[in-house]
Amino acid sequence: MLKPKDQTANTWLFYFLFCLPFAGFSQEKKMEQHFRQQQDHIFSTLSADRQKAKQSLDSLFTLEGKMSDTTAGLNYNLLGIYYNYTGQYDSALISFKKGLRLNGNHQYRTPRYLRNIGNIYRKKNLYDSSNFFLKKVQSFYLEQQDSLGYALILSDLSANYNLMLHHEKAVKAQVEAIRLMEKHNASKANLGAAVQRLANTYLKQKKFDYALEQYDLALEYFQQSRQMSNYYLTFINIAQCHIYLNDYKRAIDIINEGLSGLKKHGNPPLLAIALSVKAEILKIQEEYTAARKTYEKSMNYAFDSNVSRLVQIAREYLELLMIQKDYTKADKLIEKTEPYLSATNIEYHYSYLEVLADYYAQRASHDRAYAYSKKAHRLKDSSYYSNNEQLVNDIQTAYRLQEKEAENKTLNSTIAKKEASISNLTLIVLFLGVLLILIIVIWRTRNHYHHKLIKLEKNRSKELAQKLAIEEENTRLKERLIEQQKTELLGYSLEVAQVNERINTLVGNISENDNSENVKSDLKNLITVNKNWESFLSRFKELNPHFIPRLSKHYPKLTQKDLEFCSLVRINISYKDIANFLQISHESVHKKRYRIAQKMDLEKGVDFQQFIIQF
Description:
By secondary structure, this protein is an all-alpha fold. The protein has helices at about 5-45, 50-60, 70-85, 90-105, 110-125, 125-145, 145-165, 165-185, 190-205, 210-225, 230-245, 250-265, 270-285, 290-305, 310-325, 325-335, 345-360, 365-380, 390-420, 425-510, 515-530, 530-545, 545-555, 560-570, 575-580, 585-600, 610-615.
């Protein structure tokens, strides 16, 4: 039998062994919180000071062995963001995929990793791979009924469609994304990116006025959210608009302002693009020496960072070398650009091949010129690459292999722990007993915590559903109110038309009837009623506050009377009622409509009434 002193010692030993894991668990939790705080700080400094953020991240990687897998995964996610900012897309892709493996199957972080991977594939011009990952995230948000998350992915997909030359599809997706973002009060940074992408599509479609409007709005959003890299990137797009509009002085001023900001942020891919735009302006203005120096700088940045527009910049530079007939330099450029052709997007690829055909034609190498021309036309006629299905299968296979490796790693770790043995049988029994108790306590604690999390998420989902229901109800009420006000406005216009018709009748009665005093009395009564015209204008401006100012801005030749006439057409009343309303003949209404259409320079065949209603 054990002595009382031995029993007391064993009791204290038991309590020590029992409490030790709890102390370790508490300490581990504090360390995890500390690591997460460091990661949050690194993320906030990545866009402002990348080198400082990278140094902090490297220090954090030295402590990777003390972190949980999910926390270590976030380190790789931050590293992927850093590589993305610095144009190192292959390294970014490797980092994001490693973060995804360490992440396990986290419900909310997994979509972020997949979205990052999809966006990197877009920057590598692998649009089918990008769409594959982005649509996986889109399906997740649809299942979760997360409209804002769905909108962000829709915006990413729209960017892909634009680069794949599916411009109408891109506009439709981006407009819907912006609508959902505005409805759910998305961050200014996300709204800015979506608006910028819409403007890029308008630029591709050569709708420059629309593009410039959207770029101005994107600048506001980026400035408010302090997204300065995107802010200065927008200057590049605006300069390209002014190049197409032949306003080269404005374009060069804008691109110089953008370059000044980008140099402070040290973003090689964006600097390559900005310099190429500046070089293009100088080339158009026949300042060939300055243009060549600028192209050289742009190509250096492009090759160093493997920028997505590398082939496009090389094409523009090659055109300059053809003008200068510097074939030695041109041959070197062609040789250096060749390895990047297969990875570039289809638009840059075929436009480069077309210039290559012109180059060899200029050098009287007609066979090569014909071969490149034929290849360019064949590529131009195709809208996507033929091996999409195989590419998707390869990606799926690779993703499954990654998941299998993660499972094997976990399984091997469990087996290794089970194979550990202790020679002393008594200690083994005691240890297993304590371990069993600990497992039960930890399991119950974690289970309780897990249920709390589930309950919290359900409450959040319920609140979100309630908010969505309230928003939908408010929208229906607003639509009902607008329809009611439109009906009221139409009533005003018809009432005024009827008043004018009565006045015409009474005027006719004066000539037919000598009882003019009664007619005058009736006319005086109608003067009060005719104030409805003022009510009509006031009501119309409440319902359509932007119509008259916007129409006047787009068509400054229109007079006030013309604008009032268009207001009547806007509410879709008949030309007969408009004639009564304005006290003119039906023929005069058509003449007035014709004159206004001429002032607006509307093309023949355009339905004037439908144009005004939809304006």
